[in-house]
Amino acid sequence: MGSWIQILSIYYLAWFSFFVVNTVSDESGYDEDVKKGNVVIDGSSVIGNIDDDFICATLDWWPPQKCDYGTCSWGLASLLNLDLNNKIFLNAVKAFSPLKLRLGGSLQDLLVYGTDDYNKPCTPFVRNASEMFGFSQGCLPMPRWDELNHFFQKAGAKIIFGLNALYGKSVHRGHTERPWNYTNAESFIQYTVGKNYDIHGWELGNELSGGWSWSKCLCRSICL
Ligand SMILES: *[C@@H]1O[C@H](CO)[C@@H](O)[C@H](O)[C@H]1NC(C)=O
Ligand SMILES: *[C@@H]1O[C@H](CO)[C@@H](O)[C@H](O)[C@H]1NC(C)=O
């Protein structure tokens, strides 16, 4: 439980910083009402502690077709296409050992897992402007999950995996309907446990209570 609190506190800090930076420096015209403001942080009350050796990074799911501000910067940096045989990458992760790697981001709530219960073709994300975040549902094939875990084991990373908390729900701007369908997440966890992959933490949904999120949910609707 302690480590969960630690991770969550860092996570909220990261989210908070992102939000502040984004709000102040966003020049894309996305939010025309951007105003500068002052943020006061009450440092006198500690809400969580992190390990002395805490260092954390994220690997995301965005495909090469993800473009912002005229640049498609993701290239082959996704969990689905990253070159796991790249020695520089391996050594970089090793150098921070034990690096906590959080696997997730916006598309995690559109990701399904190619386990036995998922009886449709396990296909990657495809661009579709009508869908949340501009992409269709994508799938993580289990052979790729195996390769990723072998890499994490070799590199000595600790993994925090962000589960899809919107599977089975229908999302309209501002709220969600229908219960979470957990069967695919459950079989993914079972597969992972069956393979003895060591997962340091499971995260449910990507920042779904964040006011800025496209898929803003009432917390109550996703709490189990
Ligand atoms: C794009 O998404 C919409 C909404 O889910 C769907 O109706 C449509 O068929 C999709 N288009 C393609 C090309 O898959
Ligand atoms: C939940 O998802 C599984 C696939 O993972 C599907 O077979 C099942 O029908 C879904 N359940 C509901 C209630 O939609």
From TrEMBL:
<dbReference type="GO" id="GO:0016020">
    <property type="term" value="C:membrane"/>
</dbReference>
<dbReference type="Pfam" id="PF03662">
    <property type="entry name" value="Glyco_hydro_79n"/>
</dbReference>
<dbReference type="InterPro" id="IPR005199">
    <property type="entry name" value="Glyco_hydro_79"/>
</dbReference>
<feature type="signal peptide">
    <location>
        <begin position="1"/>
        <end position="25"/>
    </location>
</feature>
<keyword id="KW-0732">Signal</keyword>
<dbReference type="InterPro" id="IPR017853">
    <property type="entry name" value="GH"/>
</dbReference>
<protein>
    <submittedName>
        <fullName>Uncharacterized protein</fullName>
    </submittedName>
</protein>
<comment type="similarity">
    <text>Belongs to the glycosyl hydrolase 79 family.</text>
</comment>
<dbReference type="GO" id="GO:0016798">
    <property type="term" value="F:hydrolase activity, acting on glycosyl bonds"/>
</dbReference>
